[in-house]
Design brief:
The chain is 0% helix and 58% strand. It is mainly beta and 130 residues long.
Length: 130
């Protein structure tokens, strides 16, 4: 039932396809402000976004594939970092990448999900099924 479904797993990759990419964040506590920075392969900031306040737990976001200047960037692999604060103090924030399940693989008495270009991930590492 998971084939073709999107899942959130630990990681910071963004796959920009047809001008859209999705990612996620797992906050260790509530945050007044969550700032997202999208980076190119050389580690340069392509776009920064303020995602606003969020409660503790997982949430996902969509990137429109544009730079801070509003220009469309080429499809491909990008990465991202997040900084979350509450009342001036840093809130733990884990980056989550979105992968599409292409196969279920049994490996050493456990199941792994094949997420294509993101590789394989143990089923118990899935944070959320989208």
């Amino acid at each position: 039932g998971l084939l073709g479904k999107s899942v959130l797993v630990a990681g910071s990759q963004l796959a920009l396809t047809a001008g859209t990419a999705r990612g996620g964040v797992n906050l260790g506590g509530p945050a007044d402000s969550v700032k997202l920075s999208i980076l190119d392969a050389a580690g340069r900031v392509v776009q920064s976004q303020e995602l606003g306040g969020h409660e503790a737990g997982n949430f996902s976001f969509v990137w429109d594939g544009k730079s801070d200047s509003g220009a469309a960037v080429p499809d491909g692999k990008y990465s991202f970092v997040v900084n979350a604060v509450r009342g001036g103090e840093k809130v733990p924030a884990e980056t989550l990448q979105v992968g599409t399940v292409s196969a279920l693989v049994r490996d050493k008495n456990q199941f792994q999900l094949d997420l294509g270009v993101l590789g394989r991930v143990d089923f118990d590492k899935v944070q959320q099924i989208l």
